[in-house]
Design goal:
heterodimer, A: 4-stranded mixed β-sheet, 5 helices, 7 strands, globular, B: mainly alpha, two-stranded antiparallel sheet
Chain lengths: 122, 454
């Protein structure tokens, strides 16, 4: 298995991210690359509604930030996941940490706490 | 680090019926090699499950016939006699082919359709089907909720629409929140079988069956010149047969109910044929009763009147029950489908099986859809006109949904051995080509006919 290459656009970008328990925590919205003396290393994934919106365009980012604040997210920002948290990649990107540690599902957590879990039967 | 799409790269072919473990050594960014062990679960081989099959059939009947179908089919029969019967054939074929494809994508990639579409097309390009689908889903929800209210008013005329619409939405929301998904969907589909009354009515009305059969295979009978109205009605019919939410619902429902490929395929085919029969009956009874009187279908009462004239008050009761149930079933399916789509696009947890607090954004999405739908329904818009226009817009959005589906279903990385066969591709391409023609024609026709008003 020499010459193993990962095409980031095809095999990583836009894949669903799952935490160590298999719970979904968003998509790979962007990738972080570090440039080091002519070498480029992928150092992390970027996810979350803010990251998604920024990739679409500045107006979308502004709208999404307003919606997130309205729903109760105090400081909407893209979530960086360092590459060391990636366990393996198959049909999705699987992390070796629990989603609570990553901060990736902040919007879901806030919506759950403020609205959904207050309804009877949740 | 390992990379896999569908089948593990660099791994020997595996027996899909056995649990297996795959070992890989793959270099990571810093030049080191990381050993990875992946366990691959066996696919379950199941015997035929009659119950699953029966329920799949019922769901497909419910999927094929809903408020959109009732209104557009009755209008077609009343205005154009048998001249639009031919649309049932591409409708059935298109629905069956793409519903099966959607289910197969879910089963072989292990993920629901929209999850795969986002990954395969990227976030920008897949935004087009997302927006188109969500827009049509909300409008369809308006149509189905209004349809439930109209069905209730067939019998209880004193209840005003502005009271019934929010009431129906509230009942549906409570049911969606509390009741088991399968129970909800299956009881709606079962009650919806009351629509078979229209098939009985069609038999009672003794139409010239050889003319009906001829019209099924002859697209433009001599009696009708293809005017803008005729084409617009045809487009709305195609949209009603293949309402976009059904395909997403089909694949996500399959993931939730854990069905297998054969059950998927057979139930899609049988259910659609049954649904097609009810649709043919709706067109035929309207053609027998309303067409000679030059009566247009402007209310749900107009649509019910042929069945009532054939079967009397029993016909009315069955039509009312059937129309209510298929609308309720469709409303449940379209709201869940809309939420599946959005959540799968953004990678949020989804489904009726997990506890609500674990998938909060899934529930929030359909709550928001209901609020928007009720506001639109209460805006004073004519529900019947809205139905026709929504179904035309549904047809318009279909190529943007079918196109990506076709791309994914042909990608061996996702589908493995389950990728599209030549025959499926040929049929799917013909349907897609028809829909592209329809799409190109819809916008000018919407303008010329004023949304089917003339």
């Amino acid at each position: 298995m020499s010459a193993q290459r990962i095409e980031l656009g095809r095999h990583v970008l836009d894949k669903e991210i799952h935490d160590v328990h298999g719970r979904p925590c968003g998509k790979v919205d962007d990738l972080l690359i570090e440039l080091d003396a002519g070498d480029a290393h992928v150092v992390g994934l970027v996810t979350g509604p803010t990251a998604f919106a920024r990739a679409i365009g500045p107006r979308c980012a502004a709208v999404v930030a307003v919606v997130e604040r309205l729903l109760g997210v105090k400081d909407p920002r893209p979530v960086d996941l360092t590459w060391s948290t990636v366990e393996y990649i198959d049909v999705g990107v699987h992390l070796n940490v629990a989603e609570e540690e990553t901060g990736a599902n902040e919007l879901a957590r806030v919506v759950s706490r403020r609205f959904i879990s207050r309804l009877p039967g949740a | 680090m390992s990379v896999r799409c569908g089948n593990l790269q660099g791994a020997p072919p595996r027996d899909r019926t056995q649990n297996s473990t795959v070992h890989l050594h793959i270099p990571v960014a810093n030049g080191k090699s990381v050993p990875v062990t992946a366990s691959v679960k066996a696919e379950r081989r199941r015997p035929w499950r009659i119950s699953a099959l029966a329920l799949g059939v019922l769901a497909s009947v419910g999927g094929f016939v809903d408020m959109g179908g009732i209104i557009t089919s009755s209008q077609a029969g009343a205005s154009f006699h048998y001249a639009l019967l031919w649309t049932v054939v591409p409708g059935i074929v298109g629905f069956a082919v793409y519903a099966e494809m959607s289910g197969r994508i879910a089963l072989s990639s292990g993920r629901a359709t929209f999850d795969v579409v986002r990954e395969r097309l990227g976030k920008h390009l897949s935004l087009i089907p997302l927006v188109a689908l969500t827009f049509v889903n909300v409008l369809t929800l308006v149509v189905e909720i209004s349809g439930m209210a109209l069905a209730v008013r067939l019998g209880l005329r004193f209840l005003p629409q502005p009271v019934l619409v929010p009431l129906m939405a509230l009942v549906l929301l409570v049911l969606l929140w509390r009741v088991n998904f399968e129970l909800l969907d299956n009881s709606a589909a079962l009650l919806g079988l009351a629509m078979v009354a229209t098939v009985v009515a069609a038999v009672v009305l003794r139409p010239p069956w050889h003319d009906v059969a001829a019209a099924m295979v002859r697209p433009s009978p001599d009696e009708m010149t293809p005017t803008a109205d005729y084409l617009f009605a045809g487009i709305s019919l195609l949209g009603a047969y293949m309402t976009p939410y059904q395909f997403e619902f089909y694949s996500s429902g399959m993931r939730e109910q854990e069905e297998d490929v054969r059950t998927n395929w057979v139930s899609a085919i049988i259910g659609t044929v049954f649904g097609g029969l009810i649709t043919i009956a709706l067109i035929v009874v309207a053609a027998q009763v309303l067409y000679p009187q030059h009566q247009q279908v402007q209310t749900l009462e107009d649509a019910a009147s042929p069945t009532v004239s054939a079967l009397g008050s029993t016909g009315l009761a069955l039509f009312m029950l059937g129309a209510f149930a298929v609308s309720a079933g469709a409303a449940v399916e379209v709201s869940l489908s809309g939420a599946y789509t959005v959540c799968q696009y953004f990678g949020w947890g989804w489904g009726k099986k997990p506890r609500s607090r674990e998938v909060p954004l899934f529930h929030l999405t359909y709550f928001v859809m209901f609020v928007v739908a009720v506001l639109v329904a209460l805006s004073g818009i004519d529900p019947i006109r809205l139905t026709t226009v929504t179904m035309a817009l549904a047809a318009l959005s279909l190529p943007f949904i079918f196109g990506p589906m076709l791309i994914v279903a042909n990608d061996p990385d996702y589908m493995g051995e389950q990728r599209n066969k030549l025959a499926a591709n040929v049929v799917a391409m013909i349907i897609l080509a028809l829909l592209v023609v329809v799409t190109v024609a819809t916008i000018p026709l919407l303008v010329i006919t004023g949304g089917g008003s003339s």
